[in-house]
Specification:
Low-confidence stretches of chain B: 1-8
Structural class of chain B: alpha/beta
Pfam families (chain B): ABC_tran
Order of helices and strands of chain B: HEEEHEEHEHHHEHEEE
Family (chain B): Belongs to the ABC transporter superfamily. Macrolide exporter (TC 3.A.1.122) family.
Radius of gyration of chain A: 29 Å
Largest sheet of chain A: 6 strands, mixed, barrel
Strand content of chain A: 15-25%
Radius of gyration of chain B: 18 Å
Number of strands of chain A: 10
Number of strands of chain B: 10
Shape of chain B: globular
InterPro entries (chain B): AAA+_ATPase, ABC_transporter-like_ATP-bd, ABC_transporter-like_CS, ABC_transpr_LolD-like, MacB-like_ATP-bd, P-loop_NTPase
Structural class of chain A: alpha+beta
Strand content of chain B: 25-35%
GO molecular function (chain B): ATP binding; ATP hydrolysis activity; transmembrane transporter activity
Mean pLDDT of chain A: 87
CATH architecture of chain B: 3-Layer(aba) Sandwich
Largest sheet of chain B: 6 strands, mixed
CATH superfamily of chain B: P-loop containing nucleotide triphosphate hydrolases
Number of helices of chain A: 12
Oligomer: heterodimer
CATH class of chain B: Alpha Beta
CATH topology of chain B: Rossmann fold
Protein name (chain B): ATP-binding cassette domain-containing protein
Number of domains of chain A: 2
Number of domains of chain B: 1
Low-confidence stretches of chain A: none
Chain lengths: 377, 242
């Protein structure tokens, strides 16, 4: 009977494709939007993840994220270095600046000043050039997404910039995770960054700390807080704060939430309507089967198989669509590094199952309520 | 012993006693059947005839176990079908009753042979084996060459034969037909009736046909006329005034 159920479903091609479209579209919308949402949120932690060697970030107690930070006095660095368990501690500066290209365009950029001696604070990899270029005068390294944004289709190497009225020369391209706002990021030595970013007496944004062998980052951060009165967080804690900041301070979760909800509602509406039409068109056949002697349980199995088949194929198509979307846009700076966390297909699978169960149940009620005697009317 | 005496001794295919059926229409209760007592014998082609609204469809639905009577008993080949559990009643229908519906109700997306095989598949028979038996039944009905066609590729008469094959493929003891000739011309209608008699009527089987079609009245073994929920005529011919 299940074979008959499948043939009944696939035989009505228009409705079969309509059902597949409904599930696939819904799955695509839910999976794709959740993927973009999660990846965008994770960019709130990009500043932290780009500095993979730092175990602990030390900052002013009011600082919240890599981009929302209150400057520390330069003495903080020595204070932190004096805490037992600290293997190394380096200064890290983050500030905003304006840059004028040789074409006269103005661009807001982020300046990151990394430790002069160790260059801790740079992203791990370089796409072009090496980190040594920072020893040359007025050198800056630009992040890859920023390079594409400021110099589309051309190499930025050797380009001269007017950075806060100072001369800067791009001498390398870093492979960095873009920031939430995809701002152009220029990396330079800490001492050089101080020149580029005039301002208040205190300009040290963070102290990056490496834990000594055998020292746990969490206990070290607690010890630093206790002994310096500064705020210290492990890399993961600070990354989480970056994500939380976006959740708490932007309308993004709400907007994406609405889109995901719409995806679900559209799925329920399209699938529900099409499935009900399919059942209604076949109600005489179901009634005949019931009269002939097919049990309600078998009929329920038939409807369940039809719903399950549509659900699985539609879900597969929707997830494939999302994979295709992410792959197609993988070279676009906006979507750099985007991936589909394994939890998201599970969530969309749960949503699809909910859609199928809901619409299948409504359709099944119609079949169950059909009296076999109706076939004689 | 006379033929009538033989019939009296045989177990009836269907026995109804005091069957009534009420329907609710808003606040009003409408009695459609008024205490019908009826014995249908095996080996007979029995017609149930009457005007629209006379209660034919209700009667036939009750006799084949798909509509519960408000009151009364119905026995089919000695089984009090409405004392069975729901599952047993469904199974009883599957094993013992074949249905031919006025609109055929074939499944449009499976071919003629698979449509005819539905009762066997529902009984749990392997699909290919069921199909083989269905093709053999279609062969008896002279449409084996159409076995692989979908219902919408068949003429009305051919669809009717597929529906007949579906009703007979599992060799039920009772075949119930609703207006089997309504959509057919006179010649095709008579051919269908001949077929039904040939393959459906046997010593231990019975065929009941609900019909309006006076072109085939002469083919019946017995004609029951139903008027306003009561049997008003029981004989081998139609009464003069009909």
């Amino acid at each position: 009977m299940l074979w008959i159920a499948i043939r009944m479903l696939t035989g009505d091609k228009q409705k079969f494709y309509g059902l597949l479209f409904g599930i696939a579209f819904s799955t695509l919308l839910i999976t794709q939007q959740l993927t973009i949402f999660v990846n965008l949120l994770e960019r709130g932690a990009s500043g932290t993840y780009n500095v993979s060697s730092a175990d602990v970030w030390v900052m002013d107690p009011v600082s919240r994220t890599t981009d929302v930070a209150y400057a520390l006095p330069s003495t903080a660095l020595d204070q932190v270095r004096g805490v037992p368990g600290v293997d190394w501690a380096v200064p890290h500066l983050r500030a905003n600046a304006s840059v004028r290209t040789k074409d006269g365009d103005l661009e807001g950029v982020a300046i990151i000043g990394v430790d002069d001696a160790t260059l801790i604070g740079l992203p791990k990899g370089m796409i072009e050039g090496s980190t040594d270029v920072l020893s040359q005068p007025d050198s800056v390294i630009i992040d890859d997404v920023g390079a594409e944004r400021m110099f589309p289709g051309q190499s930025p190497i050797g380009e001269r910039l007017e950075l806060n009225d100072q001369r800067a020369v791009v001498r390398g391209i870093a492979d960095a995770i873009p920031s939430f706002t995809s701002t152009v990021v220029l990396y330079t030595k800490y001492s050089q960054a101080l020149r580029y970013v005039p301002g208040t007496r205190n300009r040290l944004s963070f102290v990056l700390v490496g834990a000594a062998d055998g020292i746990d980052a969490k206990s070290l951060s607690e010890r630093i807080e206790e002994q310096t009165g500064l705020k210290a967080q492990t890399r993961d804690e600070f990354a989480r704060d970056g994500v939380d900041f976006i959740i708490e301070n932007t309308g993004i979760p709400l907007n994406f939430g609405i889109t995901v909800l719409l995806g679900f509602i559209v799925g329920v509406a399209i699938v529900g309507l099409t499935f009900s039409l399919f059942i209604r068109d076949n109600i005489k056949q179901f009634g005949a089967l019931k009269a002939i002697g097919v049990t309600n349980g078998k009929i329920a199995q038939m409807v369940a198989v039809q719903a399950g088949m549509v659900g699985m194929i539609g879900y597969g198509l929707g997830v494939l669509g999302t994979v295709g979307f992410i792959s197609a846009f993988s070279n676009d700076p906006t979507f750099k590094g985007f991936y589909i966390p394994w939890q998201i297909p599970l969530i969309s699978f749960a949503a699809m199952v909910l859609i199928i169960v809901l619409t299948g149940w409504i359709a099944l009620r119609g079949v169950m309520n059909t009296e076999p005697a109706a076939v004689f009317r | 012993m006379t033929e009538t005496g033989n019939q009296a001794e045989r177990q009836p295919a269907i026995r109804t006693r005091g069957v009534t059926r009420d329907f609710q229409a808003g606040q009003q209760t409408i009695r459609v059947l008024h205490g019908i007592d009826l014995d249908v014998c095996p080996g007979e082609l029995t017609y149930l005839v009457g005007e629209s609204g006379s209660g034919k469809t209700t009667m036939i639905s009750i006799m084949c176990g798909i509509l519960w009577p408000t009151d009364g008993d119905v026995e089919v080949f000695g089984t009090d079908i409405y004392s069975l559990s729901d599952t047993d009643l469904v199974n009883f229908r599957l094993q013992n009753i074949g249905f031919i519906f006025q609109q055929y109700n074939l499944i449009p997306s499976i071919d003629a042979a698979s449509n005819a095989a539905v009762p066997l598949i529902a009984q749990g028979m392997d699909r290919l084996e069921a199909r083989e038996r269905a093709v053999a039944m279609l062969d008896k009905l002279n449409i084996a060459d159409q076995a692989g066609k979908l219902p919408n590729q068949l003429s009305g008469g051919q669809q009717q034969r597929v529906a007949i094959a579906r009703a007979l493929v599992h060799e039920p003891r009772l075949v119930v037909c609703d207006e089997p000739t309504a959509a057919l011309d006179a010649k095709s209608g008579r051919r269908v009736m001949d077929l039904l008699r040939e393959v459906g009527v046997a010593e231990d089987r019975s065929v009941i046909i609900v019909t309006h079609d006076n072109r085939i009245f002469d083919l019946a073994d017995r004609i029951l006329v139903l008027e306003d929920g009561r049997i008003t005529h029981d004989g081998t011919d139609m009464p003069e005034d009909h």
